[in-house]
Specification:
The chain folds into two domains: 2-192, Rossmann fold, CATH 3.40.50; 206-436, 3-Layer(aba) Sandwich (Rossmann fold), CATH 3.40.50. Helix content is 44%, strand content 14%. The protein has 18 helices and 14 strands. Bound molecules: uridine-5'-diphosphate-glucuronic acid. Uridine-5'-diphosphate-glucuronic acid binds at residues 121, 146-150, 210, 213, 217, 251-253, 255, 257-260, 262-263, 266, 324-325.
Length: 436
Amino acid sequence: MRMSVIGCGYLGAVHAAAMASIGHDVVGIDVDEQKVAALAGGIAPFFEPQLDELLREGLDSGRLRFSTDMAESADAAVHFLAVGTPQVAGGHAADLRFVDAAIEALLPHLRPGHVVAGKSTVPVGTAARLAGSIAESGAVLVWNPEFLREGWAVHDTITPDRLVVGIPPTDAGDAAAELLREAYAPAIAAGAPFLVTDLATAELVKGAANAFLATKISFINAMAEIAEASGADVTLLADALGHDTRIGRRYLGSGIGFGGGCLPKDIRAFAARAEELGRGEAVGFLREVDGINLRRRDRAVQLVVDALGGLVFGKRIAVLGAAFKPFSDDIRDSPALDVAVRLRGLGADVVVTDPAALPNAAAAHPQLGYAVERDDALRDADAVVVVTEWDLYRREMSPEHAGALVAGRVIVDGRNCLDADAWRAAGWSYHGMGRR
Ligand code: UGA
């Protein structure tokens, strides 16, 4: 099937390469010339496991190409819309200017029978607003939200846990759903449920999914606050809760909380849209979810200050991690970097290291110290803070090895990912978040 993917960021680049890998003929379109040049050369402009291989395979097969020219999308049967929807400056709502610009640029190239499939995360009601102008060209707009996780994006795109398509209540809508069923045939054959809904429900599924995940993380982090006050251990609590299959252990990882380009801005946009709909009260808890999440960053900083006897000024602190999570170089709203910046603000001599995100971090925060190698960051540190749970810190760093490098054996585990007993046994002063 001929397809275009409009917007080649974390979502679109992976979607384009994945669609080509299952046999479709795909053109990825983006306004950013540098990004298009990198992708066309088989190099992902960001860190994403398996993406380079998938790009090269697609480019070599002739089924995948990239362009800045929207006219290249003209012969596609399906146009996937994958542009970003960041948080609006000065507010909590989603900024839809890239969605609007992409649709405006696409309109002259739409033909009767074409399907425009929105994948971007948008406030409920966006599809209804856009549907009219698309219908005038004889094309039809459907909404097909994306649930991929960065770091697992290739896996999640090729083997999604579900496919959701919101369609208008027309014959053209039914035909569009069939076309998407064909487009995703391998995933459906492998067992992925294919759910057809109305447009508003499809938009809501995405917002609700991210709101739920954020709520689950903040729930366990709220329990961490209670554990801190009562002498309990939140990781044991999470294990015990997780055995209840109605609850489940996933997304009960406690620590410095969630960040990235999705969960934080999506819960805010969701709440902002609910307000517009006159139902702000229904999701008032999302403000708490946000607040709990941000409080954990304060708490991590306070733990470091306390662990160093109340003063971090002039102390050398190794910050292990900059990305908002492992297997990513994404530093958007990264709690890890936020903690580093705050420690620096208190006068600490901060040295940040990360196996993937260092260039992005250094560009955004040139005031911080950086070390490419983990051990260089550890050397002579008065305290170590683990803020992104890369295997390099979680599994491949022994307390003895690190202990031989640092000036002081003080470690704050911002992701509750280390074996506290092993670190204590090696003479470290270990501080988890909500752990005994
Ligand atoms: C999230 C969703 O998981 C995807 O389903 C969704 O498609 C995506 O947003 C999106 O809207 O595009 P992602 O932002 O890649 O994916 O990251 P997650 O793996 O969900 O992690 C988000 C944050 O939560 C990270 O900072 C992570 O460290 C944190 N987290 C995650 C926890 O603090 N505890 C956990 O137990 C799990």
